[in-house]
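Give me the fold.
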Amino acid sequence: MQASRLKINRIKPKSHPYLPKNLLCFSHLRWNFVFQRPQQLLSRLSKNFNTYFVEEPIFDAQDRVYLTLENIHKNLSVIVPHLPAGLRFEEQCDLQKELLDRLLASQNMAEFIFWYYTPMALPFSEHLHPQLIIYDCMDELSAFKFAPENISILEKNLFKKADLVFTGGASLFDAKKHFHSNIYPFSSSIDKKHFEKARQSWSSYPRTKKQVKLGFFGVIDERFDSRLIANLAKKHPEWLIELIGPVVKINADELPKATNILYTGQVDYQQLPSYVSKWDIALIPFQINESTRYISPTKTPEYLAAAKPVISTPIRDVVQPYGKMGLVKIGENAEDFARHAEELLRLSFAQSKDWLRLVDDFLAEQSWGQTSAAMMEKIRETLEEKQMISVA
């Protein structure tokens, strides 16, 4: 069984060990940032736990440190620490440790699970004793721009402490599987019904009366191949290229500027299908470097659920399985992207019944609901093993 095709919808619970009532997730991403893996999973896991999504601190406190708590829905809250500016890392950890202890006391949390997205949370949380420690390793964070110097050391410590590890894709699983004995790959999934809304606009206008539109949504950062987009826009000035998403960690002034490149900015997750419905082709224009070596772009299945043909650079977790199965076109540069796009436009690829049937067959096993259910089964199995060991 290939890691990227893990058949998660056929797993049946074997037992029902006692589940702690609370889950605390430590994240390097903010809840109101781009809606992606953490939000998709934690929204669903909150059906099983009182879930607290603990963000990194905001450095705006004046005379005292404090936490803010926002209820997203019944069993899900977002926690934000507020600290003074100018603190050393050790001082930040001491204050966050104090605030975390206050949170547990105020919410009467005698039992809980820790769920980590960032190893940087370990120094202020490792003094506590959760019933289970989970590390959902969604990216190789050490390869990202401005990564903390000590993140690799802290990740090794987190692997030692974790009871259960998930990875965000097959390539990341291959890189991390030697660090833990209870580790499983869970690639990017989809909210299929949400993105299928984009299919409803297929017949809203004839191709001959509109401008060809190519699009991308996601974070525009150091992974984004600006040169590819600039060259593609130059090769086809009659095409419109829409780029949706926040610009982070790079200078926005250095992004390509052209009359046929449109920067829409961040769009609410609920509105994305409406934007995607107006595209002819979806793009994944990522550079091939250390920061993209292990990524598994969530946008790949989301584009496909919207029934948009996709062109991507050769990201390993896109090439296998999507490229190998003929679901996504792979290109290395603007020339390749232009050639693939010209072909797709001629063939009206998005409305090909055979292609769409292949897409839907593949996506049938890729929903976030199935992924979260499979993760819950691994949580139950690991808890049962721990409880059996403690009784023995």
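Confidence is low (pLDDT under 50) at residues 1-13, 203-209.
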